[in-house]
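JOB MANIFEST
job_type = single_chain_structure
chain_count = 1
residues = 187
[input]
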Amino acid sequence: MRMRKPAPPLDEDSLYNYAVKLLGQQMRTVAELERLLRRRVETSEGGEAKVEAVVARLKERRYLDDSGYAADYAKLRQENASFGRRRVQQDLMRKGVQSAVIASTLDAAYENVSEEELARRHLERKRVRQPENEKEAARVVRMLLRAGFSSGVILRILKQWDVDESSLAEIELLDTAETGDSSSSES
């Protein structure tokens, strides 16, 4: 098997053009772009300085903006995929967006959004029917948890669907552990 030769290191102007090409293909965070650019420069301090200079130039020209990226990403994931706040937060953290930017973006994006309504839209989009047994109820719970919804919202949806009491008790225990509130398990 023939090994592919690594690409020669780029100078600053070529690195800038490469970065613009990458941003033209797909929206990216600062961390994602820096990771991709580091592959195309030498590993010395000079290579790191080129990456920093290119990123600064892109920010100056407003081609690269983590807060704008986070706002667009949150809006798209909320509207198109009907994902909950927690899932979008995890995705943005994985993409390298700073915690403060994530918090302010999600506060604005989910300010006037009913999490329960969003969860219902997610279930409609996935064509999920009312569960008929405990196994199907567990599948719905896992799906909604993966989509970033709180167990309290999941519990309200399942209660409205008249899901078996034993299944609801297990979810209430999960909700109690999640929120640290022991009063909900007494009712």
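[summary]
DSSP finds ten helices and no strands in the chain.
The two ends are 66 Å apart (CA to CA).
exit_status = 0
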